[in-house]
Amino acid sequence: MTTKDNPLWSPVIAGLSPYVPGEQPKVADLIKLNTNENPYPPSPRALEAIREATASGLRLYPDPDSSALKTAIAENYGVSPAEVFVGNGSDEVLAHAFFGLLQHPQPILFPDITYSFYPVYCDLYGIQRTLVPLDESFRIRINDYLRPNGGIVLPNPNAPTGCALPLPEIRRLLEANRGSVVIVDEAYVDFGTESAVGLVREFPQLLVIHTLSKSRSFAGLRVGYAIGNPSLIEALIRVKDCFNSYPIDRLALVGAVAAIRDTAYFESTCAKVIATRERLVPELEKLGFEVLPSGANFVFARHPQHEGAALQAKLRERKIIVRHFNKPRIDRFLRITIGTEDECRALVDALREIVG
Ligand SMILES: Cc1ncc(COP(=O)(O)O)c(C=O)c1O
User: Fold this and answer.
1) Ligand 1 atom showing the smallest separation from residue 160 Cα
2) Are strands 129-132 and 84-87 parallel, antiparallel or unpaired?
3) Which CATH code fits 3-41+264-355?
4) Counting atoms of ligand 1 from 1, which one is nearest the CA of 35?
């Protein structure tokens, strides 16, 4: 008997293809440009708040409503706490949104090339999906989404392409699609893309999802949130309270509040990442790479003469790790996280050796 037919499992389990996260290497001396983490540490104020919180209170459960965090997020975006949901990473927020808002008779729509967790949630919850192909320049075409659906999920910027949609295009989709939920996953929005948060009051079907993993350097803390109409938020709260009453622990709670409030630190680290990206792109182009336009903290690039998998392997020999997806249409590409200036210089030097 293989584990695949273990009769002790619930039947749905054997058919699942779980999400495969990027490598978290067990050795320390690698330049890690493979999972879109921020190269800079979290806000010092957040670290101080966490240190203080470890001194007391850990024997007690955290606030199940994460009220202080919802208030900090609400103040940051000029919405009310009733329009905010928080979860253990935006992956959990997305999972609850798929469960609570996207289980309808019609298939949901999302791009054929996008964040690979979306199909996993569909399989887990039995949600039908229709994949909408990106155009030949790897862009989302809003016109392709103007059709009957059980919901729409769009990352903006998209991952792993990094390509962003301008806000008027998101508005056009919302105006044409009022009868089902539209989720805009803005995991990378703070690196130069316009957010749709300002549209949530106008469009009650819109849910915008953010994470602290990227622009607030808190991938290790696991905090994400959604902003939308209180009735969408209520659905997410119902799912959460049927699953885990305390998704945000005490340390994450105080750390996230301080990180959200430290606007100056947030803006300066985002600006540094964007500036490094803008310096890296022409360097890659000089080496012959085609780089898709990025509004994110990573770039998606391919070389006309070199296979993506081979480039990834050769970079790894030089102790630099980047992400490669062995998938149709994108198997020649590398997804490269924007690191520090020094890390990106080392990357360009290594690539010059390899392709030059
Ligand atoms: C498009 C997109 N959405 C959501 C996430 C999840 O982020 P987290 O669960 O760390 O908040 C990621 C992570 O890489 C992502 O790429």
Assistant:
1) 16
2) unpaired
3) 3.90.1150.10
4) 14
Nearest alpha carbon, ligand 1 atom 7: 90
The verdict on the CB of residue 217 being under 6 Å from ligand 1 is no
What number is the average pLDDT over the span 293-304?
Answer: 98
Please, where in the chain does CATH 3.40.640.10 lie?
A: 46-261
What is the rounded distance in angstroms from the CA atom of residue 152 to the CA atom of residue 168? 17
Above pLDDT 90, what percent of the chain? 94
Q: Tell me the CA–centroid distance for residue 82 and ligand 1, in Å.
A: 23
DSSP state of 22: P
Residue 41 alpha carbon to ligand 1 centre in Å: 18
Residue 142: DSSP 8-state: G
Q: Measured between alpha carbons, how far is 102 from 108 in angstroms, rounded to an integer?
A: 7
pTM of this prediction? 0.97
CATH 3.90.1150.10 boundaries in the chain: 3-41+264-355
Say if residues 161 and 300 touch (Cβ distance below 8 Å). Answer: yes
Q: What pLDDT was estimated at residue 2? A: 56
The CATH code that applies to domain 46-261 is 3.40.640.10
Instruction: Report the nearest atom of ligand 1 relative to the CA of 159.
Output: 1
pLDDT digits (tens, 9 = 90+) for 337-351: 999 999 999 999 999
